[in-house]
Amino acid sequence: MEVIERANQEALRRMLTADPVLIDVLPARDVLTDLGERTILHAGPPIDWPRMCGPMQGAIAGIAVFEGWARDLKEAEALAVEGAFDFRPNHDFDAVGPMTGMTTRSQPVMIVENRTTGNRSYCTINEGLGKVMRFGGNDAEVLNRLRWLRDVLGPAMGAALRQSEGIPLKALVARGLTMGDEMHQRNVACSGLLLRALSPELARVATDMEALAKSLAFIGGNDQFFLNIAMAMGKAIMDPVRDIEGSTIVTAMSRNGTDFGIRVSGTGDTWYTAPVEMPEGLYFPGFGPEHANPDMGDSTIVETIGLGGFAMAAAPAVAGFVGAGAASDAALFTRDMGEITVGENPEWTIPSLDYQGVPTGIDIRLVVESNIAPTINTGIAHKEPGRGQVGAGVVKAPLACFEAALSGIAERLNVE
Amino acid sequence: MEVIERANQEALRRMLTADPVLIDVLPARDVLTDLGERTILHAGPPIDWPRMCGPMQGAIAGIAVFEGWARDLKEAEALAVEGAFDFRPNHDFDAVGPMTGMTTRSQPVMIVENRTTGNRSYCTINEGLGKVMRFGGNDAEVLNRLRWLRDVLGPAMGAALRQSEGIPLKALVARGLTMGDEMHQRNVACSGLLLRALSPELARVATDMEALAKSLAFIGGNDQFFLNIAMAMGKAIMDPVRDIEGSTIVTAMSRNGTDFGIRVSGTGDTWYTAPVEMPEGLYFPGFGPEHANPDMGDSTIVETIGLGGFAMAAAPAVAGFVGAGAASDAALFTRDMGEITVGENPEWTIPSLDYQGVPTGIDIRLVVESNIAPTINTGIAHKEPGRGQVGAGVVKAPLACFEAALSGIAERLNVE
């Protein structure tokens, strides 16, 4: 239908003209409008405590202790059961969060502004690998790291960014694609490029050399540091696409560990959900599929902008890490994603494909017609609270979400 | 012949077991044994003033002013003509230098130690792009930058490295190969990885925040910063291979802008030379082949260890930069270099080739038999003194060097 084609071209235009810039880091309470006193933002579509998976319940207990709402994990759990907390999706607050996606008042959030449209998006700072809150970790080590992010690194990054002109992300990501990153499970290049841009500014605002050294070492020692920035960037790019009448372009894919949900431009902020799938991947030593929680996190926003599994061809080394087959087969994933997208991004190109742009703009019609589900590169959390990451893999977005969304669009266009 | 095969396997073994670590930065006079008062080390095989190309003469005039041996470029030139300076190859002092390769007493040199064998190699700090001394630049801007490297960055890097355990380079380069670097014309990943490792140490020894910020910005703003470290690493890896009786493995390739020279293990430190060729490549706006100087520099040491043109498959983005054809053809160069090498490096692998190791150990017999010359990725200097870089390209090592070296080996083995 012509109305749909036109709407989708407009959606693609908005995506390709976005100009995301990392501009600041501030406490969530200062920037997330209407964030309540005991509100806990989580990844994925809306969900209540009883239906939450183990790692998300574990993260919630941990973050409640971190915020001082409970003395210990046990009390925190009891409060959660009693309904003392207000659980809301990050996406309702212009935010995104990886895996469990905990965002609360005192956590610092990185701010990405889309300078084309003026909207801003938010994401917490990446904690590193292993036992971390986004994978359900909640012990003293996890909480102490969050305190250091809140008290030291967050304020330092904020001060550094405020005295800079911000760090434009479009060109940085373009560069990262020529350096083997796909910006979901592989961010080592972009993390390094970010450190290059940020480290002189961090030095200029530093007063304590040892604190500066620790900040530089933390960023430099975390290959996934850029992931949370890529996510805020994805949200900043997609938010202006959320309301185009008739458009069948996916504006968000997200999972809370129980449900997988998508939003589509032509149906605004409606979530279309289906039971989330289990990633297929590789496990860290000592772990296997029997320990794995189903797929989780807002990080799939990067696939909606053509990165992650869609840009696998740029990152042959990630194919092995996520158990997606031979490195030389990485290009096949990108080719497949070309079947379900409406365009390519001429500014985000892949050298090994002779500078073909990443497949951009998931059209739910193409997904349903082809039965090709979006490929997502993801981390795998332990299914029990408090345990952390156990592997990485590839997961398919459930086709049922796309079928339901297509019905939703048809209804609105009266073509049912 | 069996003696040659055995010798070459020993050469390969020494190369693959090398453990190069960046350990310090110190003034050349403190570490280059027997460096004379008015000695100027240059790239390539030995050469006298009258036969030197324009950019090398320009660099010599500049470095003489920098060292205080002349008041201005004119006086420096006159002194050079009179024989006031002692010109010696870097390779005679365990050193290497990019392009013109100027190394003199007061310049800081980075020190790479091969921890397997204990030998050390040296290279000056990379100056950045454009009008720089290694490309023949010699004006006030060039000299002021050298002063800052001498007075600020060099001492800071030295202090930072001395209080660390050194930066192991083998693993860092392995990582860089998964991030699109080939370590000759593309070092953006390794430069970033180096900054990650070095920046916390730089912060710990810093006393002046603005100086630290400038140092971080200089390293972070120079995509080729790692090149000089890769070169010192190459020298540190190859030096223990210099004296294996009967070995036909190339231990150094180098050019002074007039002659191309190679050294072969079985003939020790003898240079086999031939007229250097002109790179074929791409020029910066406003320049063309008519401005180009023939090939120059010690940087070809990286090809002797399997990087640069030999690792082109790892760096599809470099193919376009050096004008070597389509990015998707980059693998062809690596395949060709497999024809003239005796092994692969199992620790330096290329994801897109399903982790095939880089072709390692150039055998002059294979070069002569196949007529396949080593492929070198190189920068292109303006042929006039004082002008700087005008492009980048690919150059072939002249076959005549390899033929002459093969005769030399045959003579020593009495098989002529």
What order do the helices and strands come in, and which of them pair?
Two copies of one chain form a homodimer.
Chain A: H1 2-17, E1 20-27, H2 28-31, E2 39-42, H3 54-66, H4 73-82, E3 86-89, E4 108-114, E5 120-124, H5 140-162, E6 167-168, H6 169-177, H7 188-205, H8 209-220, H9 227-238, E7 250-256, E8 259-264, E9 272-275, E10 280-283, E11 296-297, H10 301-304, H11 316-321, H12 330-338, E12 341-350, E13 356-362, H13 364-370, E14 375-381, E15 389-396, H14 399-412
Parallel strand pairs in A: 2-3
Antiparallel strand pairs in A: 1-4, 1-6, 4-5, 7-8, 7-11, 8-9, 10-15, 12-13, 14-15
Helix pairs in contact in A: 3-4, 3-5, 5-7, 6-7, 7-8, 13-14
Give the largest interface.
A-B, 40 and 40 residues
Q: What's the average pLDDT of chain A?
A: 96
Main sheet specs of chain A: 4 strands, antiparallel
The ordered string of helix (H) and strand (E) elements of chain A is: HEHEHHEEEHEHHHHEEEEEHHHEEHEEH
Q: Considering DSSP H and I runs of 4 or more, what fraction of the residues of chain A is helical? A: 25-40%
Q: Pairing-aware structural class of the strands and helices of chain A?
A: alpha+beta
| Helix segment tally of chain A | 14
CATH topology of the largest domain in chain A: Enterococcus faecalis V583 fold
What's the total count of β strands of chain A? 15
| Molecular shape of chain A | globular
Label the CATH architecture of the largest domain in chain A: Alpha-Beta Complex
Low-confidence stretches of chain A: none
Strand order of the largest sheet of chain A: 5-4-1-6
Distance between the termini of chain A: 13 Å
